[in-house]
TrEMBL record:
Residues 1-44 are annotated as: Disordered. The chain crosses the membrane at residues 175-203, 210-229, 241-261. Pfam families: TPR_19. This is Tetratricopeptide repeat protein. It comes from the Bacteria. Keywords: Membrane, Transmembrane, Transmembrane helix. The keyword Glycoprotein does not apply. The keyword Cell cycle does not apply.
Amino acid sequence: MPERPDASVPASRNPHLYFGGAPNLRESSAPDARPAHTSHAGDRKTLDDAARLWSVGKRRDALALLKAAVRANPDDLPLRLALAELYREMNSPDQAGRWGIVIEGWTTPVERDRLARMLAPVGIPRDDLVEFLALTGPVESYPDLEEVVDGPLAAHVAQRKAAAATDESPWGERLFTLAVICWITTVVGGVLAVMAVFIVAFFDLADARTAARIGGGCFLAAAAVSSWVSAGVCAVENRWLGAGVLTIVGMIAATLAVVTFTTT
């Protein structure tokens, strides 16, 4: 059977008395955790208020209250431990690792890995981790955090860079440039076609209907080509929904162009 929390530990230093799953500091799995600053009435009130919110189902408000308190008092281990334990109970290993990583030996390997995976896409510079994780000193001051930064985080960042380099295709930039040229040509051609039809009709130089049919057909054909080239750009970038939509638009434009040219 699990041991009962040590009643001799003051309430503000014993998160277990507030949140059922959190251990008190004397029974913490982090025996080497550095001491927190002296507890005071404000800490006790924060834990009480968070426990009350949690008990009535307002979990988001309880977490927000504790996070604000930790940021205001980043060296207060009872507050930080209570917050991290709540995230652990909620099965949020990335957030449990985020708020508990400063307590040496407290986080699990899974939580440290999830923390690294959370940080890798964001690309937060090493020095900015002090603010993001609400630290009181540089990364080097926290052995577990330094191990995460130099180990799994560095590995995940390297993997993402390698994957990005592998996904880059020389055709992507070329197709994008071609698509831009095609669309510019299509728009300019469409404007010129409208102007040509207007001039032909105004000065009665030829059959305006025939001119409009030819100009409209050329515009639709150009739009179809531009759509298909743009679909190729989307396909290279693995944006398959955009590729599919543009392919359909190109087919519709091409069909209308054929109809326009063949109509007498």
